[in-house]
């Protein structure tokens, strides 16, 4: 490597540059945090039901089969836009009914088809989960996914 | 082995290899469920198996890093570890926590943030273990000689432990949850872990090739500088579609493109050092793993990462089998192979033997690397078809998946090769007592290292 680049110069560039990028990153994080709260997820209130739904989503570790906004496991369909796909994004009651119907029919037991487990979920929790998925669906995700198929 | 306290690394490496076995067997099981979906579906659903597969991986890699630090820091600092007892206490905490987490998963107790599913008490256990480690290793370094290798290694380990704090932060707002989640996930594997990787690689090359320390350490600083300069803002490539501002599409695309650079440099570094080195170190298997790790990391993390990092591409490929292909090859190349390199280098010394059974070890390298490469190719093909059918044409997910079954069968075969390779590796380091079956030729004399 070039002679002008001594070990101590390389070290100083490393430390100085890293601090610079950390500072920029923190500033952008603060701005992004505000943007999420005030703009991209502001279309629907973060109600108690939605929060309950998020806890239900987490307790059953849905993320280890499904993706949500494209993140998670790739074993089962994307759920960030599932309410749009089902045509119930603007219908709270319809969202609950279709979700409840789907989940109580699992596992399908069909040979050769991926199986979704049976989950013990109360009616209140199921309503929360439906609201959570509607809430996720209303997030401004920069137009992603490209198709309703998810 | 120059210092008695380096011996603690042996216990870390053995535990790491045990979890490595569990990890690949979990992966094989998950791969089989893709082929035969009804298998175990009621008893042990896919989400639980995947949790065990990913968590075991992360913990064993960390155990390997901790063990590597305990092995190389005394040698670099030229003094014994501050406390051997603390090092064992830390290991016990981590092993109890891991077994506790696996046990909890099996009975259905787990969180729901990907990779951070551990019950709260396990997360605290990991935090305490990390603090013990940082205290122990920092006291050792502070009292001894400071080198670039220990500087970078410590900085990486300190930062990754600090970032663990974000494992406890789970906002109710999903988009915020995702943003802070990446502070652990991305800033671990695409920033701080790279520091640890580069430091361990520098140590290995210093020992294996005998190149001047000054040269090695200059390379090291340049590599880690490019890693953090690209990796920190490169976090933006995870922020495209989760509800964050649109400018991340440009920032993420540009900076994450540069994330290829540190991996290219690490590969070049490894080959240039071997080329320049005058030493003919007897542990050829460790050299193979070191070169192999930096090369596969370049392809897995660098090339396969770039493949889908630009936002115009990622809009279509995000969250498909393309991501799975990249994830497998990058973890294997950068972190699995590097850990196996330091295990291969250190084990003969830790067990007080000449570097033995190298051929078996090298066979395991080719089995695992070949298997992972094949797996990456078939998943990339599957992901390309999936991207087109689902994201361009708009066919439903399960219909597309049904058409990909041939790829999943081939992936299972590739996974089986990896598992055989992994078991062979563990066997070659822990069980076999004989020297190699093939005698090195006269043109390749074995001189003591």
From TrEMBL, chain A:
Residues 48-137 form the Cytochrome c domain. The keyword Membrane applies. Keywords: Heme, Iron, Membrane, Metal-binding, Transmembrane, Transmembrane helix. The keyword Metal-binding applies. Gene3D superfamilies: Cytochrome c-like domain. Pfam families: Cytochrom_C (PF00034). GO terms for molecular function: electron transfer activity; heme binding; metal ion binding. The chain crosses the membrane at residues 12-30. This is Cytochrome c.
From TrEMBL, chain B:
Gene3D superfamilies: Cytochrome c oxidase-like, subunit I domain. It is found in: Membrane. SUPFAM superfamilies: Cytochrome c oxidase subunit I-like. Residues 8-449 form the Cytochrome oxidase subunit I profile domain. Keywords: Electron transport, Heme, Iron, Membrane, Metal-binding, Respiratory chain, Transmembrane, Transmembrane helix, Transport. PROSITE patterns: COX1, COX1_CUB. GO terms for cellular component: membrane. GO terms for molecular function: cytochrome-c oxidase activity; heme binding. Belongs to the heme-copper respiratory oxidase family. This is Nitric-oxide reductase large subunit. It comes from Antarcticimicrobium sediminis.
